[in-house]
Amino acid sequence: MIVSDAVVVGAGVVGASIAYGLLREGLSVELLDEGDAALRASRGNFGLVWVSGKGATLPDYALWTLASADAWAGHAAGLEEETGLSVGYHKPGGVDLCFSDEELEQKRALLQTLNDAVGAERYQARMLTRQEVLDIIPTVGPDVVGAGFCPHDGHCGSLSLLRALHAAYAKRKGTAYRAGEVMLNIRKVGTGYAVLTRDNVYKTRKIVLAAGLGNKTLGPLVGIDSPVFPLKGQVLATERTALRVDWLTPYVRQTDEGYFLLGDSMEHDGFNTFSNVAVIRGIARRSLRSFPFLKDLRLVRTWAALRVMTADGYPVYDESERFPGVFSIGCHSGVTLSAVHATRLARMIADGALAPEVSAFSARRFDVQEN
Amino acid sequence: MFKRIDKHEEKTLSFTFEGEPVKALEGDTVAGALLLKGESVFRQSAVSGENRAPYCLMGICFECLVEINGVPNRQACMVKVEDGMNVNRQKRAVEVKAP
Ligand SMILES: Cc1cc2nc3c(=O)[nH]c(=O)nc-3n(C[C@H](O)[C@H](O)[C@H](O)COP(=O)(O)OP(=O)(O)OC[C@H]3O[C@@H](n4cnc5c(N)ncnc54)[C@H](O)[C@@H]3O)c2cc1C
Ligand code: FES
User: Which of A40, A234, A262 to mutate to test the pocket of ligand 1 (most atoms within 8 A of CB)?
Assistant: First the structure.
């Protein structure tokens, strides 16, 4: 029997951020993950730490995202200090290009809603004219008529982030997370719980289910409804270039290593993780229309990965009523939220309850409302 | 270091690597022909400048990048030798002509 204060199930970017945070809160932690065949959004994502436009129908989410963006520079510096690994975080502000007056109007309305909800001085989103876009990105194509801009948007190396989180966890704990430990069930044992895998029993008081799409089946074991579903995204990577740019858009960005990454589609395609040419072509077209200089670059890779999505795109955070101390944490935008997951959310879990600032993220919002 | 395992009846081809003539058999990949000749430096890393050579020989790792007939960043392990090809080391990240 392996005993710890908390067991975190799932070592993707969400579980690894929380486990690292719980260690920093002084708890002893076991972090379990599946084998290499696992579905992992954390290994196929686009690496944005993105604020702009999120939470238009739920200001709590806009604020939670903004809190994470504010904490990200410290998060990146902390990980680098603990592990010596850079996560390649930069915060140039995000430029969201528009190609028609209609798109400009939609973007203006969206950013206005968020400026109003959060406070314009805090949110700082604004519209850019074509000339203002050119001042930031001299290489945009002729069809660009303007853009939305938000100074809080940034990006990082998503694989570097995951590696640094795993390394920081291992360094604090003294051993790496446990790969190949699939959680099968949870039992009440005395005043605590037993987490069962094929080969081991983990005795603990707190459990965090952070198994990505796996939460859909794990949540019900403790009476938590976790309505997450796969939403496929595809990404293209160019060869490395000597050209270095310091701007960021939501679907074309440059990594620290010199690649341009082009994203990112949204497809309802079940658990299928194959790339396909029609979608790749669409991504390439939009990227070329935005940045004609990309036509001279060769693509070296493409991949597909599955988002951990909810019906409204917002996170699902819940504590079990029947199994107090067992939490289910699932979300899209786990990279963006890594900084608040490792700090505020980990503290709430260590303190024993989800705080009001995240209560809007309960999956109970999807229940049928009665008048 | 490397030897052919079969006797081949295939046609002999020739290409150049860094301007030097290299012999190959029809069906050889550029990487295979260069390794057979004893070449161990295919490119310099675009990040560190370190010398690199093929690793997986099956199109996955992108360690074998060379310039073929003026086109940069081609995978030597995925391209078959053609008579008269000009192959050079991939020496740096590609320049992009930004307007
Ligand atoms: C194409 C694409 C682009 C994206 N772009 C961005 C972006 O730019 N910015 C951003 O913030 N987010 C982005 N995301 C979303 C982000 O990647 C996800 O929100 C995040 O990775 C989810 O992390 P996770 O740890 O919850 O899930 P996962 O990465 O899926 O990890 C879940 C883990 O749980 C483990 N597991 C499952 N079941 C069990 C079990 N029974 N026992 C033990 N372990 C188990 C698995 O092994 C797996 O490692 C993108 C996603 C995709 C697909
Ligand atoms: S040697 Fe790995 S891709 Fe060519």
Answer: A40
Q: Which two tokens stand for residue B35?
A: 């390794």
Please answer whether residues A58 and A314 qualify as being in contact, where contact means their C-beta atoms are separated by less than 8 angstroms.
Answer: yes
Tokens 């669409």 found at: A282
Structure tokens given for B99: 């307007």
Burial of A313 (0-12, 13-18, 19+ CB in 10 A): middle
User: Looking at ligand 2, which atom is closest to the CA of residue B77?
Assistant: 4
CB B31 within 8 A of CB B77: yes
Helix (H) or strand (E) holding A319: strand A316-319
Instruction: Determine whether the shortest distance from the Cβ of B75 to ligand 2 is under 6 A.
Output: yes
Phi/psi for A175 (5° steps) reads -140, 155
Query: What is the atom index within ligand 2 of the atom nearest the CA of B62?
Result: 3
Q: How many A-B residue pairs are in contact by the CB < 8 A criterion?
A: 47
Q: Which of A243, A247, A291, A294 to mutate to test the interface with B (most CBs of B within 10 A)?
A: A243
Residue B31 to residues B77, B79, B89, Cα–Cα distance (Å): 5, 8, 12
According to DSSP H, which parts of chain A are helical?
A: 13-24, 59-83, 101-118, 120-123, 130-136, 158-173, 215-218, 277-290, 338-340, 346-351
Q: How many CB atoms lie within 10 A of CB A303?
A: 14
Q: State how far residue B95 is from chain A, nearest Cα, in angstroms.
A: 5
Say how many Å lie between the CA of residue B63 and the centre of ligand 2: 5
Which B residues, 56 through 75, put their C-beta within 8 Å of a C-beta on chain A?
62, 71-73
Counting beta carbons within 10 angstroms of the beta carbon of residue B47, is it exposed (0 to 12), middle (13 to 18) or buried (19 or more)?
Answer: exposed
Instruction: Specify the residue with its C-alpha closest to ligand 1, atom 35.
Output: A10
Could you list the pLDDT tens digit for every one of the 371 residues in chain A?
899 999 999 999 999 999 999 999 999 999 999 987 888 999 999 999 999 999 999 999 999 999 999 999 999 999 999 999 999 999 999 999 999 999 999 999 999 999 999 999 999 999 999 999 999 999 999 999 999 999 999 999 999 999 999 999 999 999 999 999 999 999 999 999 999 999 999 999 999 999 999 999 999 999 999 999 999 999 999 999 988 899 999 999 999 989 999 998 999 999 999 999 999 999 999 999 999 999 989 998 999 999 999 999 999 999 999 999 999 999 999 999 999 999 999 999 999 999 999 999 999 999 876 65
- Give the position, in ligand 2's atom list, of the atom nearest the Cα of B56: 2
Which pair of structure tokens corresponds to residue A141? 């194509």
Q: How many whole angstroms separate alpha carbon A52 and alpha carbon A336?
A: 11
**A288 in B contact zone (CB under 8 Å):** no
